Amino acid sequence: xxxxxxxxxxxxxxxxxxxxxxxxxxxxxxxxxxxxxxxxxxxxxxxxxxxxxxxxxxxxxxxxxxxxxxxxxxxxxxxxxxxxxxxxxxxxxxxxxxxxxxxxxxxxxxxxxxxxxxxxxxxxxxxxxxxxxxxxxxxxxxxxxxxxxxxxxxxxxxxxxxxxxxxxxxxxxxxxxxxxxxxxxxxxxxxxxxxxxxxxxxxxxxxxxxxxxxxxxxxxxxxxxxxxxxxxxxxxxxxxxxxxxxxxxxxxxxxxxxxxxxxxxxxxxxxxxxxxxxxxxxxxxxxxxxxxxxxxxx
Amino acid sequence: xxxxxxxxxxxxxxxxxxxxxxxxxxxxxxxxxxxxxxxxxxxxxxxxxxxxxxxxxxxxxxxxxxxxxxxxxxxxxxxxxxxxxxxxxxxxxxxxxxxxxxxxxxxxxxxxxxxxxxxxxxxxxxxxxxxxxxxxxxxxxxxxxxxxxxxxxxxxxxxxxxxxxxxxxxxxxxxxxxxxxxxxxxxxxxxxxxxxxxxxxxxxxxxxxxxxxxxxxxxxxxxxxxxxxxxxxxxxxxxxxxxxxxxxxxxxxxxxxxxxxxxxxxxxxxxxxxxxxxxxxxxxxxxxxxxxxxxxxxxxxxxxxxxxxxxxxxxx
Amino acid sequence: xxxxxxxxxxxxxxxxxxxxxxxxxxxxxxxxxxxxxxxxxxxxxxxxxxxxxxxxxxxxxxxxxxxxxxxxxxxxxxxxxxxxxxxxxxxxxxxxxxxxxxxxxxxxxxxxxxxxxxxxxxxxxxxxxxxxxxxxxxxxxxxxxxxxxxxxxxxxxxxxxxxxxxxxxxxxxxxxxxxxxxxxxxxxxxxxxxxxxxxxxxxxxxxxxxxxxxxxxxxxxxxxxxxxxxxxxxxxxxxxxxxxxxxxxxxxxxxxxxx
Lengths: 298, 316, 259
Known about the structure:
The complex is a heterotrimer. By secondary structure, chain B is mostly helical.
């Protein structure tokens, strides 16, 4: 019984993290049809920015509680700067190109960013454990859980809700939906598609950075942390259906719970299980659980 | 076109003596890089083969690694050391796995093909990292290779390995060239251009993709076993997605114009890396990324397209 | 009477729209049949059902003794029915010769035995013969995607012919072709098809083309065949004039889109 509680809780914690790191990827794909391989690097940049800012914040001796605001601020700064530079500097010259070519473009950006990270932050690890420790530990039926993990869960829920609300309840969201639905039509209707793209990419980048920033306190921030993330995020997003926010949530939950189950019941297959789920889903639902296949027309 | 000799085949045949002479003339370290890049060049050739059909495989490392491990494990655990047998085993394993996996992969195109193959290679990576018996992340060393009963040592072993690699790599390149100019190779191009038309002409695009996937896997597997023999060591990084990314990079850089291009491209890449890492270790990938963007923007046919005046030499 | 294509009681619905309601149509060896009707009347849907792109909800389609329902398009091709498309389906980045070479490669060997295929010189001369028949020889080395609409259409049909079909279905062979070219294009392809003894069924909006080339006409309206018979009789049928031909006269000049 205890094992199952642990599986569910661990699964939820992991799912929250997965959702945080993949929601930006699916958003950008949904609107722009770009599968952003550099997503992992944006995550890493978020983590680095947060780690160095939190470090500076604590050594300056400010109020510890506000360090969470520093995490958010770090993500916003990193996402805004990187998002704008990448979108305005590279991607906008590539719109209308093949989706596969866009993968290569973002792969090139990934390569550049990975080295830029090393140039900026060096190769020694950064730590920002203070916010993690601050929330203490909880006991759930005898199982110890870090308060910070519950914070992550809340944050993931909030992010999901926020994205859902912005898409379905705001003007910008309606513009996004219009562009997703029919790009040409939206242009004809006077929607500034270019602006929509810029905004979307910056938001997506910020979400990636946010995922990184809130992960930073849990890990030692070292080169290469972004590499794994893109593959995981892709798996999650594909399971739910590329471009679907709800799909990303379901995908994250499915993968999170199954991985937790694997960790507790069959540790050897832990890594394997994620991709196995993905392959299985793709075998039966070629476009993911929640995406409609595109109609072909003669 | 009459019975003129195919210039590419002639060049490939001529390249063999040149490479062999170079093997003796060049310093050992350079010969070693040449040998390793021929091995990785085969994997890039496999990626290029798929690019001809409009498919980008972001996980070719799966079969590169599989081939290397097939050779490595047979050597390490079964005591099989003959290079030809190792090669055969690598091909058999790659073909078997890709044939099964192909039923899934061949249903997909574009980004799904790219990312699904990436994920598959990461599965292998994950499995190998967990496999204590295979040295997890450290991998393991291969015993010295023998060649049809000939068991050289020291310098002679290095030379034999080099000669073997050259012969195999060039032979594969020639075979791929022949294939690309055959009717079947032409159908691969047709799949890239218009699947609907291919279907209505009476062929199954999915079978064609499946076949190309298996062939590419076999070639990458051979590249992998050659890499294992060359380096004398295998580890899970062969399956890591950034390894595959480099194959894609080489294929993109060299273009799909000629089978020799990926082999040359692989060597260029290795040499750039040798110097880049020495002079500025943190900008190596940055350079790659920058070059890649430039190629995509200004030279979509790859470097090889510079050697031609006409846009496409095509099939005839 | 030897019907080579026999379709009986075909039904096909897309949600609330009916693309076919009890469509019965038989084509005899050597006939040249035109399918006419306004956009959305069900002509292309019929072609799509016969060629395996759409599966009818009910009904039977037979080619000789072969049941075609449930076959994939490539199986229908192998069975002996080929088709062309409203928008020419060609390999745009390859040359005209290469387009036909590939069509030949598939027709003669299929994807399974391509290694054997044809020996090169024979392969090329066979392709050139096809180009000659369809008057494409002058475009031999042109990139297919850069050709004029009419030439593309011819190439599309030439490629379909390579598989040696018994029945050829042409989906609006003259759509997108200029008025001055249309008869030349039709003459070329009809004579090439006649040489090969192929039975032809074509979808057409242009009544001049229909009158000139079809001996038999089947008129579609709202997913049904409302008239089927001798071209001269069907084209003066009052229903056909009201629902089909009249509509065509009004939309003269404007080209039809998809179904």
